[in-house]
Amino acid sequence: MEQTWRWFGPDDYVQLAHIRQAGATGVVTALHHIPYGVVWSVEEIEKRKAEIAADPSLGLRWSVVESLPVSEAIKLGEGDLEPLFENYRQSLRNLAACGITTVCYNFMPVLDWTRTNLAAEMPGGGRTLRFNADEHAAFDCYILERPGAEAEYAPDVLARAKAWVAKATEADKAKLLANIMSGLPGAFDRYDVPGLRKVLARFKDVTPDRLRANLVRFLNAVIPTAEEVGVRLAIHPDDPPRPLFGLPRIVSKAEDLAFMLDAVPSESNGVTLCAGSLGAGPNDVVAIAARFAPRIHFVHLRNVKKDPDGSFMEAEHLNGDTNMVKLVQVMMTEQARRKNAGDPAWRIPFRPDHGFELLGDIGAPAHPGYSTIGRLKGLAEIRGIITTVAELTGLPV
């Protein structure tokens, strides 16, 4: 499996040399400075490629795009979308012309991954990301004040949410909003509470079925071009895999993946298997990987530990609710199938996702979840699994 590392560009706290020190050779990045819906030009793509390859001794290459964003108008299905579809198609053409053919994207309305605590303390002083159900309910019901929200929460969660709000200062409330907004790395839109209410109102009539129809419409518009130029699109699951603030989520479980893959049955229409996103819900991640293996084009390996109330925390890569050894073996078996079938791109790229803040990374200006040392630890652990599985089974690395 190809070892990759997410990099947010020249302003990232994590440097390219750090990626090589961690043992990765593939870089996962995007042109975050280009607004959603605008074409990624060949010139801008080549500029980023040149930045990654500037020091040949590092041996790095731009392996995966994460993400080529889908405009909110496409998710809403509003207005004349053909110009936006064409811009997306042209970006795919330009990426392919530059030799980049794996593109991760998501179809989560308004918000990307969502946590309520970005620095939950662990034994020894390390920090991790956490989603607290009561804090989420507190924000939804008593800060955002979304109509009808209280009916969507269990009584015990709601009681704790009320208690949290009763003792919270304005600074506490502002920090909770900032934490929720932090799951939009590189995004142009950040919302205050009135702004978030306004954008959520745009989606008030968007049901799950309507959002699914808008996803299929998008895929039908762009997949033929992806096929033509040899690009593999890989949708990222919802994170967490549940409705948030009244917004529908439609890539949360096996049935959702089956729907979108069956709706547009093309190898270019595939999946980013994010073990942590799917693992935060009532999903058997290993079974999902086995079921959809031929259409998995990119893998995020991380782990979570869930609580009965729906809360969860980012766990050690080898010590969460998902059996990482079995998951890696599924993907290596799929790699072997692709290699035996003569697929020149048989090696599946993966990256260690959402590492802890550890040691010298604590308090450093990294994107939340994207510290250096925590991800290095995760990558080393996964590399150990890959090496062991290859030794015991003969599966290709």
What order do the helices and strands come in, and which of them pair?
Blueprint lengths: L1 E5 L9 H7 L3 E4 L12 H11 L8 E6 L5 H5 L5 H16 L4 E5 L10 E5 L5 E5 L1 H11 L11 H13 L2 H12 L11 H10 L5 H22 L2 E5 L17 H10 L5 E6 H5 L5 H8 L3 E6 L1 E4 L5 E4 L8 H17 L8 E4 L19 H22 L4
Parallel strand pairs: 1-2, 1-12, 2-3, 3-4, 4-7, 7-8, 8-9, 9-12
Antiparallel strand pairs: 5-6, 6-11, 10-11
Explain the overall architecture:
- The protein has 397 residues and is an alpha/beta fold.
- The chain has a single domain, classed as TIM Barrel (Alpha-Beta Barrel), CATH 3.20.20.150.
- The chain is built from 14 helices and 12 strands.
- It has helices at residues 16-22, 42-52, 72-76, 82-97, 133-143, 155-167, 170-181, 193-202, 208-229, 254-263, 275-279, 285-292, 324-340, 372-393, and strands at residues 2-6, 26-29, 61-66, 102-106, 117-121, 127-131, 232-236, 269-274, 296-301, 303-306, 312-315, 349-352.
- The strands form 2 sheets. The chain has an 8-stranded parallel beta barrel with strand order 1-2-3-4-7-8-9-12, surrounded by 4 helices.
- A hairpin with a 5-residue loop joins strand 5 and strand 6 (127-131).
- Helix 4 (82-97) packs parallel to helix 9.
- The longest helix has 22 residues, at 208-229.
- The protein starts with a strand and ends with a helix.
- The model has no long low-confidence stretch (mean pLDDT 96).
